[in-house]
Amino acid sequence: MAIVHVSFKSSSKAPPAAAHAQYIAREGQYQQRGGVELVESGNMPEFAQADPHAFWVAADAHERANGRTYTELQIALPRELNPTQREELAREATRELLGDRFAYTMAVHTPLAKDNIEQPHMHLMFSERAVDASTRGLAEDRFFKRNGAKKDPAWNDRNKPDEVREKWVEMMNGAMQKAGIELRVDARSWAEQGREDLAALVEEKTLRGDGPEALERLAHIAEQRQMRAELPAPHLDQAAAVQDLEKRAEQEVVRIEQRRDAEVSILDKLIEKARELAVEVKERTTEFARNVVDRVESFFGAGKQENLPFTASLKEQEQARSPSPPSEEQLEKSLAGLDQRIAMRESFDAQLAGLDKRMEAEARALQEKELSRSQEISPARPEKEIEIEHEHSRGFGIGR
User: Residue ranges of region Disordered (predicted)?
Assistant: First the structure.
């Protein structure tokens, strides 16, 4: 739905003129942002006719330190108009508001709003210094001096915003009438129009940040917007309002069906992919299980005599197999049986290892006990006798 939004901004609370001109034109570091539909510049003095951006660079360089390098109008364009109609309206507004006396750069942006619909608007950035026959040929440094191009005091008039707003509403209504759109807007506030139901739905300023108060305020504003959208516009009769609501409902149904079809298509593809993956996993698992069975049977078949119970059991299982390939259930049972036998074998080996350790410990204890007993029974031999015996063992000496 078309709305009336006209705001004035000055460079005293904004970025430098050259940077802002690049921003609205989506040039330089801002070219990746996109969302720009139209960019035009005009009424430039001779030094900037070949390169309009040079005018804003010169404004930053030569304008007084406390002076305004530019003034900007931000105006919401009707959603009901197509791109060509929007561009014509933007050009008309530029001509009507600035004429041929002020250098400007104008751009139309079409970002997506929260409702995922285009939010077209125009930026009209201009210098308040008048360009005429006496100033058009001035050099850039003289253009911005006190004795150069003069600023038009009309832009400082306190009634200028209301004047611009009224002119804009006339142009917007004319453009919609030309496009065959019945919708009309009014420059007056809802209260001035006697619409207390809409005047009560005034949006409060949104708090910044992600805190609970800011989120609650955003939710409240969204609710107000929804209530406002459901109220019939004052310029439409009841039949037209019903027709408009039906049209919106049909569009919403189509959008929901398209989204549902897209989601169903994606789900079907995921299901098919999952089935293919399940078949592949099943085949690999079956092959792996067969390899495990063959290796385990081969291992137990080549064991020692102590493994005969296990080997015999495996042979019986091999003989009990049918010539046909084993089923998945049979493979699972075989694997379960093998796991049990392997666990039994590991337990048996662990018991044998424990028994060996106990036997070694008992043998060492017995040896130590026998050695202790022999030392207690045999008297201690003199050191001299031990030395003589040692010499005899090496072939020295003649006797004890």
Answer: 314-333, 365-400
Residue 286: partners with Cβ closer than 8 Å, 6 or more residues away? 328, 331
- Side chain identity at 352, as an amino acid letter? L
**Tens digits of per-residue pLDDT, 149-189?**
999 999 989 899 999 999 999 999 999 999 998 888 776 66
The average pLDDT across 117-132 equals 92
229 and 83 co-located in one domain:
no
Grouping H, G, I as helix, E, B as strand and the rest as coil, residue 81 is coil
Q: Percent of the chain having pLDDT more than 90?
A: 32
The CA distances from residue 291 to 36, 75, 330, in Å, are 65, 76, 14
Give the containing element (helix H, strand E) for 394.
Answer: none
Contacts 24+ apart (CB under 8 A), 282-287: 282/328, 286/328, 286/331
Does one domain contain both 204 and 311? no
Q: For residue 113, what are the CA distances in angstroms to 79, 121, 136? A: 11, 11, 41
Active-site hit among 23, 30, 70, 104: 23
Does 30 qualify as catalytic in the annotation?
no
| More confident of the two residues 253 and 200 | 253
Strand, helix or coil for residue 321 = coil
CATH number, domain with residue 10:
3.30.930.30
Joined tokens for residue 297 = 């049977």
39: amino acid identity, one letter = V
Taking the C-alpha atoms of residue 243 and residue 381, their distance in angstroms, rounded to an integer, is 129
61 CB contacts (<8 Å, ≥6 apart)? 140
Number of domains in the chain: 3
Distance of CA 367 to the CA centre of its chain: 78
Burial of 290 (0-12, 13-18, 19+ CB in 10 A): middle
Question: Are the C-beta atoms of residues 177 and 159 closer than 8 Å to each other?
Answer: no
Nearest to 148 by CA among 129, 176, 127, 128: 129
Residue 24: Cβ-neighbour burial (10 angstroms; 0-12, 13-18, 19+): buried
pLDDT band at 264 (very low <50, low <70, confident <90, very high): confident
